[in-house]
Protein 1
Amino acid sequence: MAKLVSNVYGDALFELAVETGKVDDFLNEAQGVIEVVKSNDGFSQMMNHPKINKEEKLQIIDDVFKGRVSNEMVGLLRMLEEKDHIKDTVEVLNYFIDRVFDFKKIGRAFVSTPFELTDAQKSDVEKRLLQTTEYSSFVMDYTVDPDLIGGMVIRIKDRVIDSSVKTQISKLSHELSNIQLKVGECAP
């Protein structure tokens, strides 16, 4: 099965970063490029506009990024454009960032709670995650979701720990509906 575009280019960038000892530099650049692409709708529209030819798009990449990021990062962006994969830039760079985080044993945790956590509570959550995982540090992303009622939901990669009251109520409701069905089935 063919590898995803993000895997092919992300793996190549990661291998280059390790070989050249520029893992941290490329990580910072990747995060910066993602920020530019996500925060600038005009850039994405120009890069995906069918009436702007490839040479003009390559010039836009040079104008925006040359001198601000490494030649290797500019080269990657130019290659993505040349191979008609510029629309996959964010996915490629996010895949690369995930590879770097795995390499450096950094976890990325997404924590949802029904209210804003204090700094002490955030610290406790991070300490608990460090104790129960193989990561040496975490990048934490906290969001507030009042629908959770209480508890929290933590997502690390494809693993989800859901201790929210909303989920507990949903499970209880489902179990009760199963009990009612069984009782109704037994009635004469």
Protein 2
Amino acid sequence: MKPYQQKHNYRAQCSELMPCRAGITWGGKPFKLSFCIQSCALEEGAEVSASSKPFVTVNTVSKQKQTELGDWHQEDGRWWFRETLTMEVTPDEEVCISVSCNQQVDLLVAALSLASKCVGEVCVPVASVLPQLQVEDRDVEGMIYATPNIGFDVLKEGVKTGRAYLSFETKNPPAKQSLGGESWCALNN
């Protein structure tokens, strides 16, 4: 085989294994992202009662925030929160959204509060949310980038315990960055 043919065959093998293409990534700078927690529907085995109302916690790398206790709506069988938590995130991090319940023991003369119990959680990569942002013109707030309501399965020990519904909003999403047009495997020579 001639040297030219050997080099050509090597290129074909490389492109079959790892195609050399430019891609799009998000910038790694922090930005403020609002988590608009709408509601949560819990499965029957989720051990939630009217006296132990759930709340939602959002955990990032550096912070944790939680909603107030949810309100039960019998008509649609959901706990409603309608609360927005704003946190600083980067596009390359994962955010953990968990649903928990306060635990109480009623001793007739007093109620004893215990540590909250996690009903389930879901981890959401911030980068998966960013492509879904669409610009909206809100009169008072100005231009906002927002997603539609998204339903996430809430899991505990690999078992679905419910579904949380939320949307995401930001005023300044990170800019898309191109990786460039050159192939990273350097076989263009």
Protein 3
Amino acid sequence: MVMSVHELRPKAGETTEKITINLGVIDLGQIDLLVQEGFYSNRTDFIRTAIRNQLVTHNEVIRTTVARKAFVLGLQHYTRRDLEAVQAAGERLDIQVLGLASIAADVPPELALATIESIVVLGALHASAAVKAALAGRIR
């Protein structure tokens, strides 16, 4: 069975996830000052740059942990055909992804239950509401 793994950082126009953070007013003011002075185009640009710099700083820890815990790094997509092949082989999946795990919209909850033993996603899981509900007890 062949499943695709893609680059971890999305390129412009690709899927991103929205997060919310709380910052103190002094930190926020300092960010606004850097934006005003032209160092960054906006607050989001500053925050993304800061996050990427921290990820580079901790890159070795991330790589060794991903390898040790057998995570797929990037995007892992499961189609109905993939899961039907798993079912035909009498196997079950333990999905571990650092990035984005997605289950195709045409996958019925019954097929997901029959083929997915567990899901650990550090990042985001995209699946239909019905599949997420069916797998709720298996998602960690």
Protein 4
Amino acid sequence: MPNSLKDTTTLHNGVKMPWMGLGVFKVEEGEEVVESVKAALKNGYISIDTAAIYGNEEGVGKAIKESGIPREDLFITTKLWNSEQGYEKTLKAFETSMKKLGLDYLDLYLIHWPGKDKYKDTWKAFEKLYKDGKIRAIGVSNFQVHHLEDLMSEAEVKPMVNQVEFHPHLTQKELLSFCKEQGIALEAWSPLKQGQLLDEPLLKEIAEKYNKSVAQVILRWDLQHGVITIPKSTKEHRIIENADVFDFELSQEEVEKIDRLNQDSRAGSHPDTLTKGFE
């Protein structure tokens, strides 16, 4: 189990990715995102996760630069938006993201949503960028088992990561075990279900036992499932609190009780029905 924010899991191509990072979904471009990222970096985070559609890549890049932390000590992820899928468009969109971030290479690039019929062409562009050394690892986001099987039937490079909605109300058992079998790291976005889990009685009870917050219990549960996690916060005290999950361990029984909270319910869209950006 990881013992600190610097601890990493090794992706199937040998690249080391931190178990925990800061997500910046819905964090406003400009001062808010710059301060949020700087607070995380100052307090030991080394992994930052953004996306083209978040509209805050420039702020993330500015914070990285101003932090003074050597580039090679950080792990930066961004994602390709739906409207940019397809081979040529992907290559252009990647360059745009890199200019905004002000980086000369990326640690992880993800296809944000599968959509229906372009992700294989998109993946070919990802493979090219990967082979050209512009990205250290490539992956997908919001892919179900059937999307992964379809993609891998023609891919030369297997995705290293699949970032999906994952929390105690959406335990994704089948997807998690499929990804483990395939050596694809599963990563949780919205691990706290956008705050909707913070009043869950079982989680409150467990949190009290360990003198932790409900958020910390959920993030610890992620890690004990071998799932990478990227909680989002804009408040420094919360960013610090979210990372304080390395000094306690849930029992197997507690992990299983939390698993039983599953309702297959989502805070975000279902990957099979999302059309936003693809129209």
